[in-house]
Input
Amino acid sequence: MDYILAFLVGGAICALVQILMDCTKLQPGRVMVILVCGGAILSAIGLYGPFKEWAGAGASVPLLGFGHTLYEGVAKAVDEEGFLGIFKGGFTASAVGISAALIFGYLASLIFSPKAKEAGAK
Output
């Protein structure tokens, strides 16, 4: 049941984001920033933590979950180290995920031989 719930919640988040991208002229980079900041804001007001506990990976994997992870890391580091925790906490909390993305992205580039797009090509 946990897998089905994660699939449904993650799929619903992705579908809502796709609708946002299709119905507005926002560029994908801006949408990504909105999602990360939205996750951090929802965490700051206490909504995303209980949602993540209920939805599991369906809420922790999308970019909203990344914003939540950054916020949680900063909040913990500020409690432990004070002002300097603002700069350190987000990196500490998300280091494993960022490292995994870089490593697997690099491995995929070795396997699939990516090519740069030509200017003007779609």
User: Anything to note?
Assistant: The radius of gyration is 17 Å. The mean pLDDT is 89.
